[in-house]
Amino acid sequence: MLKGIIMAGGEGKRFRPLTYYFQKCMIPVGEEQKPILEYIIRLLRHHKIVDLVVLTGYRHQQIVNFFNKGERFGVKIEYVLDDPDLKGSANALLNAYRKGAISKEDTLVIYYGDILSNINLEGLLKQHNETGYSSTIALARKFNISVGTADIDKKRITQFVEKPDLEKPVSIGILVINGSLLDFMDKLQKEGQLTSFDLMGDVVSLLVKQGEPVGAYLTDAFWYDVGSLEKYERLDNQRLDVEMGYLLK
Question: Which CATH superfamily is domain 2-140+169-248 in?
């Protein structure tokens, strides 16, 4: 079964003081002041991904009270509360696996809860299915660095560029994995007795290191990481409406 997995746990420490009062993915964005999570759910629904599992914990009541079982948004939502003793995105996914919310037979579209994007999820899934790889990572073709960069010769700057584009693919917090990877992750977590276990930093990195084919889905789609208070303050709400407003109609 095709399932959308939304990572919506964590305390959002980089978002404080707002997250003393709000769950991070419930912070309003855009001219219509909709929660970040609403844009994510609507994007998944737009691309025919309607069976959703929200992995949450901190202030989860705000999410449940607003979205309920998803009927108002044309989806079906199941909630899985994180195990407080197990930190990290991979542990959150394993927790859902052990509780029966996802299975080895599922194809999982994983979406981090602080990412706004109009990525073509159907295109991502099509490529994933065609390659037969166990995982496919969505990558933006370039990334704007928020600081200046310099080339130096000893103590002298030979070139300086303010806020350049990094011409190298970067992860945007969206990926697809086959449920068959869950047993591998479960074994890895138990063998290492990992109380902190990250999906991208640990699992995907290890797969690449071991030579396991990992797909790269390159995209020029709009995306924005609302991962900190600084990023939230810099978000261009008018541009968000231009790029993603169609989801609200």
Answer: Spore Coat Polysaccharide Biosynthesis Protein SpsA; Chain A (3.90.550.10)
